[in-house]
Amino acid sequence: MAQRQMKLGFMMHGNGTGWGDWRHPDAQPGASTDFAYYRRQAQIAEAARFDFLFVADSVHITPKSSPHYLNRFEPLTILSALAAVTDHIGLVGTLTVSYAEPFNVARQFASLDQLSGGRAGWNVVTSWLEGSARNYSREKHYDHATRYRLAAEHLDVVQGLWDSWEDDALVHDKASGRFFDPDKLHRLDHRGDFFQVEGPLNIARSPQGQPVIFQAGASEDGRDFAAARSDAIFVQPGDLAGAQAYYADVKRRAAGFGRDPDTLFVLPGLRPVIGSTEAEAERKYQAFTGLTSIEDALLIMARSFNEHDFSQYDLDAPFPDVAHVAANSNRSTSERIIALARAENLTLRQTAQRFATPRTDFIGTPEQVADAFGRWFTGRGADGFVFNNSLPDELSVFADTVVPILQARGLFRTEYEGTTFRDSLGLAKPANRNTTRRLAAE
Amino acid sequence: MAQRQMKLGFMMHGNGTGWGDWRHPDAQPGASTDFAYYRRQAQIAEAARFDFLFVADSVHITPKSSPHYLNRFEPLTILSALAAVTDHIGLVGTLTVSYAEPFNVARQFASLDQLSGGRAGWNVVTSWLEGSARNYSREKHYDHATRYRLAAEHLDVVQGLWDSWEDDALVHDKASGRFFDPDKLHRLDHRGDFFQVEGPLNIARSPQGQPVIFQAGASEDGRDFAAARSDAIFVQPGDLAGAQAYYADVKRRAAGFGRDPDTLFVLPGLRPVIGSTEAEAERKYQAFTGLTSIEDALLIMARSFNEHDFSQYDLDAPFPDVAHVAANSNRSTSERIIALARAENLTLRQTAQRFATPRTDFIGTPEQVADAFGRWFTGRGADGFVFNNSLPDELSVFADTVVPILQARGLFRTEYEGTTFRDSLGLAKPANRNTTRRLAAE
């Protein structure tokens, strides 16, 4: 059996990932709506044989939102544009199940999948900002448990619609006038608690069968959902020990759902800081820490606590008890912050600053960063990584210095394995449920 | 003042416009999900200096739907991909207000507008197939009057969101840490009968200010809506006299709404058949008529009558009385069919066949087709046309033979006037309502 290799994604944020990144001397603050910038980065990532591009999202802003949320491309549209200027790289877009009709979601991802030749992925999220509901004619946002029930049903509908057409349904026989085989076109007729959708979908399956499913679950519900339903999990990493525990847990859950755990990829989002020397890497890291004020650091943290007002607390007292705020919020991140503050007995100021500019294992020379990647990967803390630094030159530096080391060590591909995103991931094309059902009945 | 010039759009349907087009010897039946096909046609249209590409849509199919509805790209995704491989041509997508959240619609068109450098257009439709509701967890489709009230409010919300950011709101001052001017970012706070949307939108205005609005109104409500709110009207043409009457009517309505009627473009969709001789053109036309069976012709017509079952009538008796079916349907088309059948005293069979393969003024040599374009244009039956024949070679033939004649006669541009879609149309960038309001208050 071939050596296990890591999967690499690139998180696309035009003007930087952190709150203050746009202030970095190298940053282009308008990059988040600059298609040329996105195209250039996508092509660098593809030349380096990355598995996929990843576009995050949110559907509600206020004047206090992070600059990189305020003005940016919508995921499906930017990914479709990038499909036209790339050939191999996967295209993963975030889209909330809370505020988009499953028929529209199914169609847009299927269309992206078709126009990219089978390279689409959907990062399924349940929006966690209370404000989102107010952009969608709703009084209140769903609670945490309801959101996961809704997410499961939404995904049922979308994946069901994706199988509307069997792979050989389109006959295109000009002589007889038979465009398709009606026995191979299927209505869904879904009638559930949240959705009633008849179908069929008005677009055929792509070369990869169905788009790849991403998730980011940290709560009990979230981990089960991800382990049961997703092909890849995007994780916010803490330290290696924590990553290993999470990894083991979701793989165990996947096995519990009857899955081969190797078909579920755990992918922490990382922000390597690479210097030609350790000292240069440290200088680059320090340059980031100065970009975010303590006021902004509190606001950044508040996003994971339902916009909780942290300015009411003493900055230099121990981190306040806000566990009750975390319960119906972005639980993975809020619980990680609380745990960090407790473990190291940090003040509110220290916690916020540490969260705004984390110090990770991935700061150093190319060799050191490659070592850290290898340690996390072979140590089963990760199946790969999402590179999360979108300053103009950082991806190039990584591609030019770290990727060749990973390739030399046999940890990362040197050529794409096939043409679709599933080919890159080594995932089989899923059988069409309607084909399976029809053949079983025959 | 410069000579008035016609506007030209290209209707993109991969595998043909008519029901039987995919059976044409030249047709590529899988073209509707073939990105390379779309790219090639888009680039031909741009090389010929067309104003825009137009993507039609529908959100419900059955096994009886026209082949060109069954399997095709979703408009926003294919247009975004085309944005990446074109530089000047406008990108107009159809999207129904009935089943898409205004916040999502505003974002996706704004994102397309940004990534194309200001070339987006939205064809605002109210879905007219009863079945559509069943793909969107709704019991019943809205009635005609309600749909237009909803459309007006939906458009209010979308256009309001598009003005969330004033043009100079993004300051990007790295030294002071001021990313934007909060006085120039505006919530919408819309509270209406159908929608409650807070805003602001999380994407700034594009170089053209707002996407261009298309509409296709034929009923009283529809004509008023188009005349009041749209920049361009897509029309299904009958004869020149009918086109002139429609043209005069909507221009008069536009003036009644206080608009300059010259900023509203009436654009019939046409399917020219061009031959190097009249005889060749006639042969090409006849080749189309044989592609659609009478059974299919009845189904095609049924689409404009809520999928009414026409097989219950005698094919060779006079066209049946189905005016009651037309009332809550695609009124423009259904009323035109009824009027045609009455005026020429046609049987059901004759009406269906005529509708499936219309014989128009636009069949002949390049000179004859250019003459017809000129006659409709200078005779004020149209301000331009949407070329509606997507067989592989027909656009090239038109571009190579008819366009040069129109250009030589001064009726069509030889170079793009600017960089945005509004530049091509000669439409001013609209003032941001929030800027206007803020300056008035100062």
CATH homologous superfamily assignment of the largest domain in chain A: Luciferase-like domain
Mean pLDDT score of chain A, rounded?
93
| Straight-line N-to-C gap of chain A | 37 Å
Helix and strand pattern of chain A: EHEHHEHEHEEEEEHEHEEHHHHHEHEHHH
CATH architecture of the largest domain in chain A: Alpha-Beta Barrel
Q: Name the assembly state.
A: homodimer
Secondary-structure topology with pairs:
Two copies of one chain form a homodimer.
Chain A: E1 7-11, H1 35-47, E2 52-55, H2 67-70, H3 75-83, E3 90-96, H4 102-115, E4 120-125, H5 144-162, E5 170-173, E6 178-180, E7 190-191, E8 196-197, E9 212-215, H6 220-229, E10 232-235, H7 240-256, E11 265-270, E12 273-274, H8 278-289, H9 294-302, H10 323-326, H11 331-344, H12 348-356, E13 363-364, H13 366-378, E14 384-387, H14 394-408, H15 421-425, H16 433-441
Parallel strand pairs in A: 1-2, 1-14, 2-3, 3-4, 4-9, 9-10, 10-11, 11-14, 12-13
Antiparallel strand pairs in A: 5-6, 7-8
Helix pairs in contact in A: 3-4, 4-5, 6-7, 9-12, 13-14
